[in-house]
Amino acid sequence: MSVEAAPSGGRAPGGGRAPGGGRAPGAARAPGAPGASPPDVELLAAVRASVLEWFGRSGRDLPWRRTRDPYSVLVAEVLAQQTQAERAAEAFPRFLARFPDPEALASATPAEVLREWQGLGYNRRALALRACAKAVVDRGGWPATVQELAALPGIGPYTARAVACFAMGQDVAPVDTNVARVLARSLHGADPSQLSQAERQRLADAALPSGRAWEWSSALMDVGSAHCRPRPRCEGCPIGVRCRWLALGATAPPPRPRAAAPFSTSDRRWRGAVVRVLAAEPEGLDEPALAAAVDAGAATRPPGWFHALLSRLEAEGLIARDPGGRLHLPRT
Ligand code: SF4
């Protein structure tokens, strides 16, 4: 199980969407797309200078920016994936007060962690975070490289780079969709969808100012959140007149149609409701009582649907069933 948001997935702590969203392998490259060409040296120097200067004045004071503790940074990264930055910022101190270090999280039961996670959505992230904490405790501490971090359960390439950059001070570039958008537009005048994930990473690696990865990556996330949004708000952007996208008079492509089923018709609502109801019922509920508590009948699905949904949640370790058939959050 990984907490890493899929490409084009969740929200990174800088407030942007989490990693990815690159061009599909084999997809045709748009005319004028930059490919893997390195950024213009003079342009890059000017963009770096203005972005870093702006960040010194206008960077956001987010709670996870006051720590260099790998565990705290990891908690922030996981919390902020697919959760609004404001909600993640509220939950961050509360979660750390309850589970202040990997040892505390690793020794908690899944039920305890899931109870604390309620209101944040995507409960699998909570279990993945706990699995990562257990692995860190078992190996006797944090690994030191991106490759080793990415080998921990629940950590993918983006999160590994984020922990290495924001906690360990390493010169590596975590690339969420905000970072990719700012760099692709400003340095290449391109839409980030014209770049594969590997090309985005190469661009970010090439743009990274040596010794300033923390500031630079935080600053790009803030520029992407405040200005270089899917529909850019160029007025007041620190890159402004230097931006190739702006100079080309480019316009953002229309948003891609969502492939996922709407919340009201997907299982997500019911999955969340089952865990939420059981979080408030330490002794558990039998299946009919649980179906009534989550109003499963309102889903108007075929017979057996709710039982199958419970079986999937059980297989994922999000709920457990005792020998008598009573359902509860996992106690071990
Ligand atoms: S000037 Fe506009 S397009 Fe260029 S980086 Fe800033 S917000 Fe994005």
Annotation keywords:
single chain; 332 residues; mainly alpha; Endonuclease III, domain 1; two-stranded antiparallel sheet; 15 helices; 2 strands; binds iron/sulfur cluster
Structure described in brief:
The chain has 332 residues and is an all-alpha fold. Helices cover 48% and strands 1% of the residues.
Protein described:
By secondary structure, this protein is mainly alpha-helical. Helix 2 (70-80) crosses helix 3 (85-98) and helix 2 (70-80) crosses helix 8 (157-166). The chain has helices at 41-58, 70-80, 85-98, 102-107, 110-117, 124-139, 146-150, 157-166, 177-188, 197-207, 213-226, 244-248, 268-279, 287-293, 305-315; strands spanning 320-321, 327-328. It has a two-stranded antiparallel ribbon. Strand 1 (320-321) and strand 2 form a beta hairpin. The protein starts with 40 loop residues before the first helix and ends with a strand. The protein binds iron/sulfur cluster. Iron/sulfur cluster is lined by residues 182, 185-186, 227-228, 232, 234, 237, 239-240, 243, 245-246.
